[in-house]
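Hi, here's the filled form for the chain we discussed.

Project: internal
Contact: R.S.
Residues: 196
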Amino acid sequence: NPAPIKSVKVNPSIYDEYIGKYILPLPYSKPTMVTIIRENDQLLGQLEGQPKGELLPQSETTFFVKDKNIQLIFSPDENGKFNHFEPMIDGGRKLLPARRLCRLNVDQLKEYTGDFISPELATTWRISVQDDQLLAKHKLQKSVQLFFTGADRFTGDHWWFQEIIFDRDNKGQIIGFRLTAEDGLVRNLAFNKQLE
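And the returned structure, exactly as it came back:
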């Protein structure tokens, strides 16, 4: 049995950097939501549909779930904001990073809509706004709900839509996106926006 992880004392005010909702990709299944909250001087995590669990600090950026072999490692982005964490299970196996969800209003979401074609696969995905949410639709696949994770990036609620990054031209107009799937076989597959 591995030695139990020991928690350290940190200033609880740093917990405020981490609170929010994160989308956690899971291997070959729908991603799940992780909510991180602060209650007094405790940091708590809650997996969708599960009870809350205390996150104990191992350092100012690494936490572990009490009585479970799970660690969360937060890393700052280029702006110094903590918008994702890497989960580690069983003492070292890394899962895909969980990304913090941000909210966009309908007008902001509309910028990402249109028909996008992959020259490589000769297939088209239509991206549209429905009930305040961005959806990707394909005639042969289930609709994919897209969650904004920041800076023209979204994550989908199916493993084959793990991440999409929209590309803009030099006038700032969206001209396409690149798709990455969780299985590692599809990385940065280009889709070009069809002109109206």
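Let me know if anything looks off before we file it.
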